[in-house]
Amino acid sequence: MRRIVRLRPHSALPSWRLIAGTALVAAIAAVSLAFSRPAVIDIDGQQVVSDVAPVTAGGLAYLPIRVVGDAAGAITSFDPDSRAIVVRRGASRLEMRIGERRALLDGRPIELAHAPFTVHGRAMVRGVDIAAVLASNVHYDARRDRIDVRTPGAVVAGAPDDSP
Question: Is 44 part of any domain?
Answer without folding.
Answer: yes
